[in-house]
Automatic annotation (TrEMBL):
<feature type="compositionally biased region" description="Low complexity">
    <location>
        <begin position="31"/>
        <end position="84"/>
    </location>
</feature>
<feature type="signal peptide">
    <location>
        <begin position="1"/>
        <end position="23"/>
    </location>
</feature>
<protein>
    <recommendedName>
        <fullName>Beta-N-acetylglucosaminidase</fullName>
    </recommendedName>
</protein>
<feature type="region of interest" description="Disordered">
    <location>
        <begin position="198"/>
        <end position="225"/>
    </location>
</feature>
<feature type="region of interest" description="Disordered">
    <location>
        <begin position="27"/>
        <end position="88"/>
    </location>
</feature>
<keyword id="KW-0732">Signal</keyword>
């Protein structure tokens, strides 16, 4: 059967009427897709929000740890500073009077420093260093210097005129001696020669410096200049 112009017009009008429906269907699909996308992305946003307190808590833990570490360091420093040896009033007084004879490290090892039976003399004792006699007497300083420099049984390791360091051997005993002629001061310690080398003892206590060390220091200073 041959088509008529009126029939073509009706078909065209029908297609035009379908366009709004197709548009509505397309729009509905987009809405569903958008809804689904929103539903899928919402949990992720919630998850990120819930992790924020954990991050904050972690930061708090780090700050607390750092604070504790700082406190521990402060306490450790305090303990270290208080562990340094301290001299009693009597020992400190002896150090001020006889500091030219021996280094402070020796006095720090004394537990007591008391007047002895001889006028202007003190006896200082320490469990590790033993007993020492100190004299504030110009006449004794002069006579002791003569003994150190003139007796055959004496040995001098340092003699600058104002300061003399050495020892005198009497039998199996040695008397280690330091004299400050400028101030009239004397330090003496008696040790057993069989058990202690007096020369090594002098260097060990810091009463004098070995010549090799002095020469090495002088050479080093000269090379720097």
């Amino acid at each position: 059967m041959a088509s008529t112009p009126h029939k073509h017009v009706r078909v065209a009008l029908g297609l035009v009427a379908l366009i709004p429906l197709l548009a509505a269907c397309t729009g509905g699909g987009s809405t569903e897709t958008s809804t689904e996308s929103t539903a899928e992305t919402t949990p992720a946003t919630t998850t990120e929000a819930t992790t924020t307190p954990a991050t904050t808590a972690s930061s708090s833990v780090i700050e607390t740890t750092e604070s504790s570490t700082a406190e521990t360091s402060t306490k450790g420093s305090g303990e270290t500073s208080t562990s340094k040896p301290r001299m009693t009033k009597e020992v400190e007084a002896a150090y001020k009077a006889f500091s030219s004879l021996a280094p402070v490290e020796l006095f720090e090892q004394f537990e007591t420093c008391d007047p002895s039976g001889v006028e202007d003399s003190f006896a200082c004792n320490g469990p590790e260093v033993g007993q020492f006699q100190f004299f504030d007497n110009a006449s004794k300083a002069t006579s002791t210097t003569q003994l150190l420099t003139e007796l055959r049984s004496s040995r001098v390791v340092e003699d600058s005129g104002s300061k003399v360091v050495g020892w005198t051997t009497i039998g199996t005993m040695s008397i280690i001696t330091v004299v400050d002629n400028d101030q009239g001061l004397v330090l003496q310690q008696m040790v057993s020669s069989d058990k202690i080398d007096p020369e090594e003892r002098i260097y060990e206590l810091g009463l004098s410096t070995p010549k090799d060390t002095e020469e090495s220091s002088e050479e080093t200073s000269a090379s720097k200049n």
